[in-house]
């Protein structure tokens, strides 16, 4: 039978709904739907529950720095937090232990806690640790659960039966009566922004919910966003720093390799000689190696060396990517998933000099197997890990020492805490560095710092090698030196110069249409309305990805000093059916 839902939202959440509708330019119905449980049939069996345990598992001993931060935050938790806390801790500094103590404090104070993680699949250890310490009190929300399990988790937390809810951004919108603590781990992750309406950002919504419910909001990261750190500098957030790794373990030493020098010495392998030597050394020592590449497939693109033609997806304005899978060679579009065979000759000039440019994980795997035929190698990317179980199996096989070299994309950059990893090789640091986005440098710095942090944990001396064609890039130099402060000061000056966030808010509007002229006309109407309202804007112009799934795309970026902005709300009413994105993460 159908479930009859008896959900009554606390008044604070009704106010949150009004705020979401106003801030993110959506209807109240769309905002309200965020807080409702899954539409489903009554579950025939209860969701999996963790075994009850009367006493807490023993916590790890806190260092003096951790203890000081915990006591400062615990005092705010009890008094009713006045402003959020930013926990800025280098990789492996022990942020999770501080979270555990705060959650325990909240529960003993009669409150409930929400712990947000970027993606449950990538944060096996933090979930395991919470379940170990708080057995029987943890509800989980994530994409791998069935509807009935999601419903059960929702009701367990909503009713107060469970005191802790862990999950990605969707965990934030499960209402409860006694909310006292919200923790956002890795607060700089792009996955905290929802791409469907309402296009809310979990950090911004968490700040509003904390204000409405009198809860303590803790944002944690080794690489805080420029916006969050700026808010801390302006005293809108309290700043707490863990500047050393747990038990004073050294941060990994980092060497930058200029790939232009490799070409000069005629090394055409995607792996520099320095990286090859380090891998060989670590294999002899029976240690593990992570090779990171911010790119799937075998090559970035395929082109003709005679006329320069690049093989483009027929439905999107982007190059096709060359893949090899079980000896099957094919081209794949990473936007619409269109596949085609690799052409034997150029479709434009009919020449036969087809060239593959760049190197993806499949190409690196081939090279590793050629150079180190006896190493136990595993290639992982989003297409090879389809479930939480796949990821957990991988995690345990790495932890047990069943693998020597792990080659992967962003999926290995975060969340893995493996004691035997002594070397991280960043095969190409340049992907994304030159994209037309004001956050391009910041994202590169964050990614390099995070992936570098996978090595040299648990008292070992770690080593990172970063390969790049742009060694003079400030994001690469700062990541090499583990120097967030210098990067922040350079970046904040650049943002202020161009009036980019945090000195403004951006609202991106996209028109998509199968007819280019129609899309251009629709975005032109928004530009006229912006002029009438006196709103600053950039564009209108073709989007960087100007055609996706056979639709032409034009966009305009509106700027406001603060949001909500009544002028932008009026412009929204000119054409609310276009794609409106407030505080966009994606400008492509």
Write up this protein.
- The chain is of the alpha/beta class and 588 residues long.
- The chain contains 17 helices and 22 strands.
- It has helices spanning 11-23, 28-33, 64-79, 95-108, 124-133, 147-158, 202-213, 226-233, 259-264, 273-284, 361-371, 388-399, 440-452, 474-480, 484-497, 516-533, 566-572; strands at 85-89, 112-116, 138-140, 164-167, 179-185, 216-221, 238-242, 253-258, 288-293, 301-304, 321-325, 328-332, 339-340, 354-357, 377-380, 405-408, 421-428, 463-468, 505-513, 536-548, 551-560, 579-582.
- The strands form 5 sheets. Strands 3-4-2-5-6-1-7 form a 7-stranded parallel beta sheet, sandwiched between helices.
- Helix 13 (440-452) links the parallel strand 17 and strand 18.
- Helix 13 (440-452) packs parallel to helix 14 (474-480) and helix 14 (474-480) packs antiparallel against helix 15 (484-497).
- It is globular, with a radius of gyration of 25 Å.
- It starts with 10 loop residues before the first helix and ends in a 6-residue tail after the last strand.
- Mean pLDDT is 85; it is low at 41-56.
């Amino acid at each position: 039978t159908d479930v009859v839902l008896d959900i009554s939202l606390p008044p604070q959440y009704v106010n949150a709904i009004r705020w979401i509708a106003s801030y993110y330019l959506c209807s109240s119905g769309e905002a309200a739907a965020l807080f409702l449980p899954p539409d489903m049939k009554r579950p025939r069996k209860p969701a999996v529950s963790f075994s009850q345990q009367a006493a807490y598992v023993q916590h790890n001993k806190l260092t003096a720095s951790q203890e000081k931060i915990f006591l400062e935050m615990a005092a705010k938790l009890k008094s009713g937090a006045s402003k959020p806390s930013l926990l800025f801790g280098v990789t492996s500094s022990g942020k999770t232990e501080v979270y555990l103590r705060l959650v325990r404090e909240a529960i003993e104070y009669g409150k409930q806690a929400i712990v947000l993680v970027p993606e449950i699949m990538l944060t096996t250890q933090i979930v395991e640790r919470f379940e170990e310490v708080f057995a029987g009190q943890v509800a989980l929300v994530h994409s791998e659960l069935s509807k009935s399990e999601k419903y059960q988790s929702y009701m367990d937390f909503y009713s107060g039966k469970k005191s802790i809810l862990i999950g990605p951004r969707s965990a934030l919108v499960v209402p409860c009566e006694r909310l006292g603590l919200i923790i956002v781990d890795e607060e700089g992750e792009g996955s905290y922004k929802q791409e469907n309406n309402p296009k809310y950002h979990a950090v911004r919504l968490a700040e509003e919910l904390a204000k409405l419910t009198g809860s303590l909001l803790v944002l944690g990261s080794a690489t805080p966003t420029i916006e969050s750190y700026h808010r801390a500098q302006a005293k809108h957030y309290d700043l707490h720093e863990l500047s050393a790794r747990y038990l004073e373990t050294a941060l990994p030493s980092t060497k930058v390799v200029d790939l232009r020098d490799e070409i000069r010495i005629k090394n055409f392998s995607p792996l520099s000689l320095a990286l090859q030597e380090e891998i060989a050394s670590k294999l002899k020592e029976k240690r593990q190696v992570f090779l990171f590449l911010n790119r799937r497939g075998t090559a970035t693109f395929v082109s003709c060396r005679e006329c320069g033609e690049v093989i483009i997806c027929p439905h999107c304005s982007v190059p096709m990517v060359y893949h090899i899978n079980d000896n099957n060679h094919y081209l794949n579009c990473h936007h619409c998933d269109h596949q085609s065979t690799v052409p034997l000759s150029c479709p434009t000039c009919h020449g036969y000099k087809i060239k593959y440019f760049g190197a993806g994980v499949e190409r690196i795997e081939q090279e590793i197997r050629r150079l180190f035929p006896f190493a136990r190698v595993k290639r992982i990317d989003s297409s090879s890990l389809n479930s939480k179980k796949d990821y957990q199996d991988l995690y345990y096989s790495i932890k047990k020492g069943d693998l020597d070299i792990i080659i992967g994309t962003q999926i290995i950059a975060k969340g893995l805490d493996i004691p035997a990893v002594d070397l991280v090789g960043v095969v190409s640091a340049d992907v994304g560095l030159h994209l037309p986005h004001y956050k391009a440098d910041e994202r590169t710095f964050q990614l390099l710092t995070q992936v570098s942090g996978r090595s040299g944990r648990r008292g070992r001396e770690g080593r990172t090698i970063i390969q790049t064609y742009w060694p003079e890039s400030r994001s690469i130099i700062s990541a090499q030196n583990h120097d967030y402060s210098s990067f922040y000061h350079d970046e904040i000056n650049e943002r202020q110069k161009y009036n980019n966030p945090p000195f403004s808010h951006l609202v991106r509007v996209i028109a998509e249409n199968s007819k280019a002229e129609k899309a251009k006309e629709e975005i032109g109407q928004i530009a006229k309305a912006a002029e009438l309202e006196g709103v600053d804007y950039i564009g209108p112009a073709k989007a960087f990805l100007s055609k996706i799934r056979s639709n032409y795309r034009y966009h305009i970026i509106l700027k406001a000093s603060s949001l909500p902005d009544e002028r932008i709300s009026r412009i929204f009413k000119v054409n609310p059916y276009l794609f409106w994105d407030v505080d966009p993460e994606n400008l492509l």
